[in-house]
C-alpha cells in the first residue's frame, strides 16, 4: 500500500439525497437497468495516461502536478501500478486502459523498452489476479516520441514502419497476456501537415496494409478481443486519415476489414470533427462498427482537446440512448479519457473527477433507458417514416427510376410538407432527463 490516497474511503452508493462528496449518488453497480446490471451496461474504465501519467501540462505550460512516481525507472513504474490499483479499488472500477509508455519507462533501445514492458506486464498480471479491475484495452503510444513526428505506419521512412510493427506486436502480446477485451489503434500522427511533402495515396495504402497485418497477427496468436480504431480529425496532425467514423468505415471497406475492426469513439474527437457524439455513435451502429467509447467533454471556448470529465447529463443521455438502441457496448466499455485540471493538485481531485463522471453517466443511462423503454421516441420516429412500409413504397425501391418517376403523373402526386415536430420531441426528451 502507498499513502497517496491516505484517508480517502472506497466510494459507495448512497443515493441521490446523499451529501457525502465521497459517495455515488446515481451509480449503483448492482441496479438493474433494462434487465442488466448497471455496471455491466457502463463497463467503466480508468485511463492510465490521464490519471497516473498526466503531469498537468497544457499547450502553453509544463508540469504542475508532482507525483512520487513521475521520475525514475522500474521501481517508479511499479509504484505507479500500486497507486493505480488503489485508485481502481477506491472507485470499484471494473476496467482500466493503458498505452505502453504509460506503464513502463522508455529504454535507450527498443529491446530495453520491451524488457521494461514485459516486466511491468508481469507485475500488472499479479495485480489483476488479486483485484477486481481487469484490462479493457491496451495500445501503443506512437505519437509522443520524436521518431513518430512524421507518423508511424504512414511514415515516409520504412524503418519507422518496422518500429511501429514491433511496437504494436509487443503491445498486442501484452494485451493478450493480460486478457484485454480490446486493442486500440489511435493514429495521432497518421496524417500530414502539408501536401507539399506528402504522398497521400502511398501513406493511406501503408496504413491499410499495416492494419491488415495487425488483424492477421491477432488471429495468429489467438487474441479474441476486438481491434478498434479511434477516429480523430486533427490534433496533433493537421489532417488525419481517421477523421471520423464514416471516414474510418470507408477505409475499412477499402482494405477488406469492415468485418474485423470496429471503432472506439471519443466525445471530444467527435466534437473536433464537427459532429455530436451521438451522431458518431449512431453512424457506427448503423454501419456495424460500434465497439467502445471514450467518455469526456471539450471546453466550448477552447480550440483543442481538453479532455474534461463529463458533467452534462442531458448530452450524455443522448449518447447512451443511441448505445442502448444499438444493443449496448458488448466487449467495449466507457473509458474515462478524462483528466483533472492542471490546477487540481490533490489526490481527492483525481478521485472526485471520476466520481462525478461516473454519476453523470449513470444518471444519463437511467434517463436513456426510461425513454427507450417507454417507446415514445421510437413511436414518433416510426410514425414519421410510416409511408415507407406500404407495398407501393417498397416496390418503388425495388423498381427503376422511370417507374418511380411515373407515379407522379399517374397518381397526380403533389406531396405537402409535414412537420418534423422537433420542439415537441425535445420537450419529450427533457421530461426524462
From TrEMBL:
Coarse class of the protein's main subcellular location: cytoplasm
EC number(s) from the headed UniProt entry: 5.3.1.5
Location within or outside the cell: Cytoplasm
Any Gene Ontology biological process: D-xylose metabolic process
GO terms for MF: magnesium ion binding; xylose isomerase activity
Binding site for Mg(2+) 2: 266, 269, 305, 307
Binding-site list for Mg(2+) 1: 230, 266, 294, 337
Entry keyword annotation includes Metal-binding: yes
Substrates-to-products reaction catalysed: alpha-D-xylose = alpha-D-xylulofuranose
Cofactor binding remark: Binds 2 magnesium ions per subunit.
InterPro entries: Xyl_isomerase-like_sf (IPR036237), Xylose_isom_bac (IPR013452), Xylose_isomerase (IPR001998)
Catalytic residues in the record: 99, 102
Record flagged with keyword Kinase: no
Cofactor: Mg(2+)
UniProt entry keywords in alphabetical sequence: Carbohydrate metabolism, Cytoplasm, Isomerase, Magnesium, Metal-binding, Xylose metabolism
GO cellular component: cytoplasm
Protein family: Belongs to the xylose isomerase family.
Quaternary structure, from the entry: Homotetramer.
Name of this protein: Xylose isomerase
Lineage: Bacteria, Pseudomonadati, Pseudomonadota, Alphaproteobacteria, Rhodobacterales
Amino acid at each position: 500500500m502507498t499513502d497517496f490516497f491516505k484517508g480517502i474511503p472506497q466510494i459507495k452508493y448512497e443515493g441521490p439525497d446523499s451529501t457525502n462528496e465521497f459517495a455515488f449518488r446515481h451509480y449503483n453497480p448492482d441496479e438493474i437497468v433494462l434487465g442488466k446490471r448497471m455496471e455491466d451496461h457502463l463497463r467503466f474504465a480508468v485511463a492510465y495516461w490521464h490519471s497516473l501519467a498526466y503531469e498537468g501540462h497544457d499547450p502553453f505550460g509544463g508540469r504542475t502536478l508532482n507525483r512520487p512516481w513521475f521520475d525514475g525507472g522500474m521501481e517508479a513504474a511499479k509504484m505507479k501500478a500500486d497507486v493505480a490499483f488503489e485508485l481502481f479499488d477506491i472507485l470499484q472500477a471494473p476496467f482500466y486502459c493503458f498505452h505502453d509508455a504509460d506503464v513502463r519507462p522508455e529504454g535507450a533501445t527498443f529491446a530495453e523498452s520491451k524488457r521494461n514492458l514485459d516486466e511491468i506486464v508481469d507485475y500488472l498480471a499479479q495485480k489483476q489476479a488479486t483485484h477486481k479491475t481487469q484490462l479493457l484495452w491496451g495500445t501503443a503510444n506512437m505519437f509522443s516520441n520524436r521518431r513518430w513526428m512524421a507518423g508511424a505506419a504512414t511514415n515516409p521512412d520504412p524503418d519507422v514502419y518496422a518500429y511501429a510493427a514491433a511496437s504494436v506486436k509487443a503491445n498486442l502480446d501484452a494485451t493478450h497476456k493480460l486478457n484485454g477485451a480490446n486493442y486500440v489503434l489511435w493514429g495521432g500522427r497518421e496524417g500530414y501537415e502539408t501536401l507539399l511533402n506528402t504522398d497521400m495515396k502511398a501513406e493511406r495504402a501503408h496504413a491499410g496494409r499495416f492494419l491488415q497485418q495487425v488483424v492477421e497477427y491477432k488471429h495468429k496468436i489467438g487474441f479474441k478481443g476486438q481491434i478498434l480504431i479511434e477516429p480523430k480529425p486533427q490534433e496533433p496532425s493537421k489532417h488525419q486519415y481517421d477523421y471520423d467514423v464514416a471516414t474510418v468505415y470507408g477505409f475499412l471497406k477499402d482494405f477488406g476489414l469492415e468485418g474485423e475492426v470496429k471503432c472506439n469513439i471519443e466525445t471530444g474527437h467527435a466534437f473536433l470533427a464537427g459532429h455530436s457524439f451521438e451522431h458518431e455513435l449512431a453512424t457506427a451502429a448503423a454501419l456495424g462498427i460500434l465497439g467502445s467509447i471514450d467518455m469526456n467533454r471539450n471546453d466550448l471556448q477552447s480550440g483543442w482537446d481538453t479532455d474534461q470529465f463529463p458533467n452534462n447529463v442531458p448530452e450524455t443521455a443522448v449518447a447512451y440512448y443511441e448505445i442502448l438502441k444499438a444493443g449496448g457496448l458488448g466487449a467495449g466499455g466507457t473509458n474515462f479519457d478524462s483528466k483533472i485540471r492542471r490546477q487540481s493538485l490533490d489526490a481527492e481531485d483525481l478521485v472526485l473527477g471520476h466520481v462525478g463522471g461516473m454519476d453523470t453517466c449513470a444518471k444519463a443511462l437511467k434517463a436513456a433507458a426510461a425513454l427507450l423503454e417507454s417507446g415514445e421516441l421510437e413511436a414518433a420516429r416510426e410514425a414519421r417514416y410510416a409511408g415507407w412500409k406500404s407495398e407501393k413504397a417498397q416496390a418503388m425501391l425495388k423498381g427503376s427510376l422511370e417507374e418511380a418517376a411515373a407515379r407522379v403523373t399517374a397518381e397526380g402526386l403533389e406531396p405537402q410538407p409535414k412537420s418534423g415536430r422537433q420542439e415537441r420531441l425535445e420537450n419529450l426528451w427533457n421530461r426524462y432527463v
